[in-house]
Structure formats: structure tokens, C-alpha cells
């Protein structure tokens, strides 16, 4: 959307080695009872002022968990999160209050994220009440201004969420997130629960709001076509780790990680001739369990380029083979020009049984 802004080193949010594990309670019907789910495991990234960082990956890869860690809705198991140069990793709820005004989240489900027993004027006005920003008529005025800002009729202030469509409910959630004029908004799959015809409206609304209010976004999604449209940079996650991060155009034109290439090969192409000529990269096997992830590179059991080293040593996320520092890949054997992955992916990858 927007180019990265300035200020200090231009970084608004920085994550260093973020880890979030969830304990699995002992149950007789769970094969790994008493273990931990390694939802996010050692993620480091930066979000620059004014930019949109897309975060993509398959369902269950840890995207939403990472978003909640960045906003401190989840306490970290390990690692560090900095917001505007301040370490917020271990702050208490009281200490986090000043940062809540500057750091907000838009939830995925426009139905479950709104209390069905409360009127939308009260829902959108909650941030004002919690932080003591406005009361009475002034709060009503500001809430109605927010409603108009996101494309809602201010006269519907006293209606309940059930009286609105899914797209309108998501606009209510956006208005609530923007009430205190935050600097950074984590958008947790804000369009995945909506009809395709409504998705474009919400995406365009977010773009307009970013331009008007100077917002910075982390846009979480599994739809690469949406992420490509909105993002300046894109980070690809697999099983709790970032495997590739680059400028959006670079990532789509020259993916270096085999998993990224497989995701891109699944994108629909409007031209049937191009679609027929294109080779799909079909990965073998299923995504491993985050309770017991593979050794070394977590993608190696499904990777068409895997070798013995991949099962023994975890690759670092860094620039590879002459790539710019902005294009980093966690792969021992990144894709080079001329590599044929489509055919290799049908066979059992070398080292898959390691």
C-alpha cells in the first residue's frame, strides 16, 4: 500500500526470536498428551512505519498466534517484541494500557468478535470508555464519525450486530480498532470469512484508511492473491517459522523457497491457456504435527529439493545466492533459475525419511 516511513530506523515493530508454545493437557484420547504445541518457534521480523507486511501460510502454521503475540494478547514463551523502540515483551496489563491505544487488532470472525447482546454504538465506544477518552454526547459524536469513516450509516448507532451483514459487521470491527487512532493494526484474516464480492470492498476500505490515517498494517491471510494486492513486503510461514520474506513483487516473480513456489503455483490464473501450460508443484505428504515437528528444516519431509543436510541442520533465515538483504530465505538449497520442481515433487524427496 504505502511506502515505508521514517522515524528512528523506520521500524515501528520488531520481533526477535518470538516463541509461543501451548501445553497440551493430558487426555486419554490424545496421542501426545502432556506435550506442547510449538505454534510459533523463533520468529524474527520487522515492520516499518507506513508499510503493509503480509503474513501468509497454510492453516495452522502459526500466523494468527504470531499476530496475537505481537499485540501481547498472548504472553510470549520466549523472545522479545519491541514497539517504537520500547520492549513490551513482559509488560503487565496495566503497563500495556498506553500501548493498546497505539496497537490494535482486527479479528477474523465478524460474527464471533462482536457481542450480540450489545448495540454497535456501545461496541465501538468501548475503547473511549476503557481509556477515559470521551463521554456522553462527545463519545456518541466520535462513534458516529467512526461509523461514517468505515462506510456505515451513523443512524444505525442503536442497532444490534444481528441486524448487519457479514461485511457490515467487519466494518464495525474495523471502526472499533480505529477508535483510538492506533499507529499499527494487525489484520487477522479480515476478509477470509466474507463473500468474494465483499472482500474487495473491505480490502479497498483498509487501503483508503491507511492512506488517510497513516496506518501501518500486518495483514495476515492465506489467500496470496489478496496479500499480493495489499502488501509492500510478504513473509511466508510454515509450521511456526518464517521460511521466506521479501518485497511483494520479488517474492512473486522469483520465489526462492520451495514451499513459497508451491503456494504460488496453486494460485488461480484467469487465462485458461496460461493455466493449462503452467506446471503445478504438488507436495508429497501432509503438514507434520506442531507437537512433534521434524528435525532440521521443518519442510524437508515434503520438499522436492531435500537432501540429508536438511534433516540434520536448521537453515538460517538470510539472503541467499546474491539476493538483496531484503530478500531472505531459510533454505539450504534455494531455488535457482531453471530448477524443475513440478516433476520432482511427485516423488518421495531425498531425506524425507530422515
Description:
- It contains twelve helices and eleven strands.
- The protein has 354 residues and is an alpha/beta fold.
- The protein folds into two domains: 8-102 and 186-192 and 208-347, P-loop containing nucleotide triphosphate hydrolases (Rossmann fold); 112-181, no CATH class.
- It has a seven-stranded mixed beta sheet, with helices on both faces.
- It is globular.
- Residues 2-8 and 343-354 have low confidence and may be disordered.
| CATH class wording of the largest domain | Alpha Beta
Coarse morphology: globular
Name the poorly predicted regions. Answer: 2-8, 343-354
Quick one: biggest sheet? 7 strands, mixed
Shape-level CATH architecture of the largest domain: 3-Layer(aba) Sandwich
Order of helices and strands: EEEHEEHEHHHEHEHEEHHHHEH
State the end-to-end CA separation. Answer: 43 Å
CATH superfamily of the largest domain: P-loop containing nucleotide triphosphate hydrolases
Mean pLDDT: 87
Strand order of the largest sheet: 6-7-8-3-9-10-11
Number of helices: 12
Structural class: alpha/beta
Total separate domains: 2
CA radius of gyration: 22 Å
- CATH fold name of the largest domain, please? Rossmann fold
User: How much helix, percentage-wise, in residues?
Assistant: 25-40%
User: What amount of the residues lies in strands?
Assistant: 15-25%
Number of strands: 11
Amino acid at each position: 500500500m504505502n511506502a515505508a516511513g521514517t522515524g528512528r530506523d523506520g521500524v515501528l515493530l520488531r520481533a526477535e526470536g518470538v516463541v509461543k508454545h501451548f501445553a497440551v493437557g493430558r487426555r486419554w484420547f490424545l496421542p501426545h498428551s502432556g506435550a506442547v504445541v510449538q505454534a510459533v518457534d523463533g520468529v524474527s521480523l520487522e515492520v516499518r512505519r507506513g508499510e503493509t507486511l503480509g503474513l501468509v501460510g497454510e492453516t495452522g502454521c502459526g500466523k494468527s498466534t504470531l499476530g496475537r503475540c505481537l499485540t501481547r494478547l498472548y504472553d510470549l514463551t520466549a523472545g522479545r517484541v519491541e514497539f517504537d523502540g520500547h520492549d513490551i515483551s513482559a509488560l503487565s496489563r496495566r503497563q500495556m494500557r498506553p500501548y493498546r491505544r497505539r496497537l490494535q487488532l482486527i479479528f477474523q470472525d465478524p460474527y464471533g468478535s462482536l457481542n450480540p447482546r450489545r448495540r454497535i454504538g456501545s461496541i465501538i465506544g468501548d475503547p473511549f470508555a476503557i481509556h477515559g477518552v470521551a463521554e456522553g454526547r462527545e463519545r456518541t459524536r466520535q462513534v458516529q464519525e467512526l461509523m461514517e469513516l468505515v462506510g456505515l450509516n451513523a443512524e444505525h448507532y442503536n442497532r444490534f450486530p444481528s441486524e448487519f451483514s457479514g461485511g457490515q459487521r467487519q466494518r464495525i470491527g474495523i471502526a472499533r480498532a480505529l477508535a483510538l487512532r492506533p499507529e499499527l493494526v494487525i489484520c487477522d484474516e479480515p476478509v477470509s470469512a466474507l463473500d468474494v464480492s465483499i472482500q474487495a470492498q473491505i480490502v479497498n476500505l483498509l487501503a483508503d484508511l491507511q492512506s488517510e490515517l497513516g496506518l501501518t498494517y500486518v495483514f495476515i491471510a492465506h489467500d496470496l492473491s489478496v496479500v499480493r494486492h495489499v502488501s509492500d513486503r510478504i513473509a511466508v510461514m510454515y509450521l511456526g517459522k518464517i521460511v521466506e520474506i521479501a518485497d511483494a513483487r520479488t517474492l512473486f516473480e522469483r520465489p526462492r523457497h520451495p514451499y513459497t513456489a508451491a503456494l504460488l503455483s496453486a494460485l488461480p490464473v484467469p487465462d485458461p491457456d496460461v493455466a493449462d501450460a503452467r506446471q503445478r508443484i504438488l507436495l508429497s505428504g501432509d503438514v507434520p504435527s506442531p507437537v512433534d515437528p521434524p528435525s532440521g528444516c521443518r519442510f524437508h519431509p515434503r520438499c522436492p529439493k531435500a537432501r540429508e543436510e536438511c534433516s540434520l541442520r536448521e537453515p538460517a533465515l538470510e539472503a541467499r545466492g546474491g539476493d538483496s538483504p531484503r530478500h531472505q530465505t531459510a533454505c539450504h538449497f534455494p531455488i535457482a533459475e531453471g530448477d524443475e520442481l513440478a516433476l520432482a515433487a511427485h516423488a518421495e524427496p531425498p531425506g524425507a525419511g530422515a
